[in-house]
Structure formats: structure tokens, C-alpha cells
Design goal:
mainly beta, seven-stranded mixed β-sheet, 113 residues, four-stranded antiparallel β-sheet
Length: 113
Amino acid sequence: HVQLVESGGGSVEVGGSLRLSCASSGSPYCMGWFCQAPGEQREGVATIRMIDGSLGYEDSVKGRFTISRDNAKDTVYLQMNSLKPEDTAVYYCVRDLDAQDNVWGQGTQVTVS
């Protein structure tokens, strides 16, 4: 049974930084981060392919957020810098989004004020 364990959310002032972590059991092909603000749909933030590090970002976070991976730990990270109030959301980690058996993390709250 694949599980994802997220950590690293919290409250931070505008312009501050947070680092999210997501550890997966097993060996994922691709992992990513989504966010969901109150009353909004869940939307993609960043993705990374574990085998070669190929990655992608949603336009609003380019230059501020960095996704990275540690294959030895089957873990991905999301370094979030220059945080803005509009980044406030629950952040979810997802494993193998395009697969039938994709797995989502429990979500971690990020609040910027």
C-alpha cells in the first residue's frame, strides 16, 4: 500500500520561505505538488520526473519555487521563497498523477500573511 507523508507547512510572513517535503513508499515515476485555496479548485504547482529530474512549474511560481528530489529517499521537496498571500493554500503531494493508481498526500497548510 503506497503512502505519501508530507511535512513542512506552516505560517509565514509575506516574503518568507517554507520548504515542503513528501516521502513516498516505493519508487515513484513522477511526483508533484498541487495547491488548493478555499473555494478554489486544486491546481498544479510543480512536477518532477524522478528518473531524470525533468521538471515543470506553474507560471505564477516560476523563479520563486523550486522542486527537487532525493531518489535514495523517494522524497520530493518544494522550496518556496518570496511567498505571497495568494500562495496561501493547502498543498498536496501526488505520486504518478497520470497513472490509474495515483496517490495523494494528506495535504499541508501554508498560510502567508
